[in-house]
What does this fold into?
Amino acid sequence: MLIKKLQRFTENEVTPKELYDNSRALISASRRQFLAQSSTVMLAAGLAPATLWASDELSSFHSNQSVLRSELTPYKYVTTYNNFYEFGTAKSDPAVKAQTLKTKPWHVSIEGEVGKPGVYDLEDILKRQSLEERIYRLRCVEAWSMVVPWVGFSLAAFIKQLEPTSKAKFVEFTTLHDPEQMPGQRGGSLKWPYVEGLRMDEAMNPLSLMATGLYGEQLPNQNGAPLRLVVPWKYGFKSIKSIVKIRFTETMPVTSWNQAASREYGFYANVNPQVSHPRWSQRRERVIGASLFNPKRNTEIFNGYADEVAHLYKGMNLKEFF
Ligand code: MTE
It folds into this structure.
């Protein structure tokens, strides 16, 4: 089994690149299975399936991809140190408890100001998307970070297919609400279901990703299977997991963390070392899985993606709109 083989690497191994290169060889079989469906679609469209997974081409997608590759967080940490309150509030809970989540079949309801509303089978959605790998840093508001090789598709491309109306100013995402499968929803750590949102131009930014996998595998349940958002310039809580509803709205969505503690978690949630969380600084971050000798790094504005996204917030007071 893939996971067992990955665990052969020792805990203090800080050469995740090698680990990933090895894991790539190991996972080729599951990857083939994972991508088979999309490859079929690409072939039907006259495209070679290799375009789905040509790592050299993919790494040129963003200039920082090759730099980030050398910082990859080992698979073990990415999949055992999680925030997914539907399965408990401890970091170790989701890896143990999320196995009760049934991710197939999976439907996504498209609602609101959109030309193509409806309830879509995720498999049908995937047939129309081009899967690609993108290496993004996920920076949590709790001042830790990891670098993950996500697999997914462009949110912008998907939104275009759904034909939002001119009234669509925001996109609201909702997680599955099923206390039977998600034991954390039997308690009140948050108001359920988990809701997140983006301004339309943020959602249409080429960095916004709908993730369906990581490290070349299907998303493990604890990481938000089968479909989650990854918005790399924002704090991790914006990257909502196990999405069942996407609604296009005229007004700003009411989001879970903002509703729970509006002084601590704003709607924008852009990574910003200048704006402290009321209870702690956001200037530095602990690198999950790094060696003891290099435990922290300076946090960068917009998590290092300023070139791609700073224009979205031109003229805005980022201390007020945090
Ligand atoms: N999505 C849902 N539905 N529930 C959650 O509790 N936690 C968020 C985000 N998405 C969360 C969620 C937070 S706080 C973070 S930091 C990231 O997921 C963590 O993603 P990871 O566990 O894959 O690293």
About this structure: The chain has one domain: 11-313. The domain at 11-313 is CATH 3.90.420.10 (Sulfite Oxidase; Chain A, domain 2). Residues 82-86, 138, 140, 175, 194, 223-224, 236-237, 239-242 surround MTE (CB under 6 Å).
